[in-house]
Design brief:
By secondary structure, the chain is mainly α. The protein folds into 2 domains: 66 residues; 108 residues, no CATH class. It is 55% helix and 0% strand. Helix 7 crosses helix 8. The protein is globular. The chain starts with 8 loop residues before the first helix and ends in a 27-residue tail after the last helix.
Amino acid sequence: MLHFNLTNPFNMKFEIIIENLNQILKEKKPIKFDRSWIEINATGVYQYICENIRTENNDVDWDKVTICLDRPFQRRWIWQKQKDVKYYQCQSEVDAILNKYKDKLYTFLAPIDESDKHIQHWIIIGLVRIGQKGNTLAQEEIIKWIIYIVYDWIDRYPQIRRWKGYSDEIEDKIKGCIRCYRYTGSFLTYLFRTLEYSARGKPPLYSLDEPTRYGKGTRVDFLII
């Protein structure tokens, strides 16, 4: 669970709200729950969240709520996906997030410590959520940054190395993860696992300039036309 600065009255109120919601969930024991369940079973909690817990674009920030719940309840949360997504372009929605973290955009590629990773998480989640609403500019912004992270993974981790050379398909996988992400913790972890599982049946691509496995010349030297 996140730690709060208890000298801040808002944080103290939010901590109480989370404690109340956790207690109600323990008592009711729902197999799954969503915002509608909270509205019916914890009306006061729901009203406080809707009035006070907002994103940079003034949507209710359910991610800030679910990440503070006890872990068993995090896994039971159902994200309400939009059934008919209408795609649009709105740069101001993207800028609202990027401007808030303008001094911390380096965390996309090179987070220094846990605090940076925490900020990286919220920048990505903010863009993912407006991307899920249909903002294609947000999707492009995520791909622009995360593609470099994926290339680094390919160089570092054997389990996804087979993605090397499949740039277009990698972008499609990122878009797919944006559409399907609900709350599973880190979006980057979700993307990594997706690439890892889907890499198993993917044939590796080789460069003709690569050395042969026996160290005698390169692959092009043995090409028969």
